[in-house]
Write a structure and sequence with these properties.
This protein has 6 helices and 4 strands; from the N terminus they run ααβαβαββαα. With 153 residues, the chain is an alpha+beta fold. It has one domain: Glutaredoxin (3-Layer(aba) Sandwich), CATH 3.40.30.10. The longest helix has 17 residues. 28% of the residues are buried.
């Protein structure tokens, strides 16, 4: 698992309101995670989410397999197993967003929580997804276009 995780890009650039948003709004959200006994990625993800819980005041709790499958189905996602972490407002059990499938670096999890909070509080989903790609380095500056010159005969 660590070999696989070593290949995953880490978030290195954060928006200016990152810390303030997580510390100011973290308590208004719940992270629920599907899990299973003996699941190595589950244990890794639990430890990282616990550290983020302490830092930002988030609530983190387990989610049963049946509920996790229902949530995946509602979003048209296939059931892929454990772990899947979901973010939702404390006051609304129906507004859930998946923020982690499998485990990830703590920096990437914090970024996903931040973007999930932003999407739950008004930022359009397309903007959040583009931001997620930008901050992971998946999307970089576009390659320079090559100009094809036509030669007259």
């Amino acid at each position: 698992m660590q070999g696989w995780l070593a290949r995953v890009p880490r978030t290195v650039d954060y928006p200016p309101d990152f810390e303030a948003a997580l510390q100011g709004q973290g308590a208004a959200f719940v992270i629920e995670m599907s899990t299973a006994p003996g699941c190595l990625p589950c244990g890794d993800l639990w430890s990282k989410l616990h550290a983020l819980k302490v830092r930002y005041g988030l609530t983190v709790r387990p989610l049963g397999r049946d509920q996790a499958m229902l949530r995946s189905g509602r979003l048209g996602l296939p059931w892929i197993g454990h772990p899947v972490a979901w973010l939702r407002p404390v006051s609304d059990e129906t507004r859930t967003l998946p923020i982690a499938i499998g485990t990830d670096h703590a920096a990437n999890l914090a970024r996903n929580i931040y973007l999930g909070i932003k999407m739950q509080t008004g930022v359009r989903a397309a903007v959040g997804v583009r931001a997620m790609a930008k901050f992971t380095g998946i999307v970089s500056a576009p390659a320079p276009s090559q100009t094809i010159s036509k030669v007259k005969d």
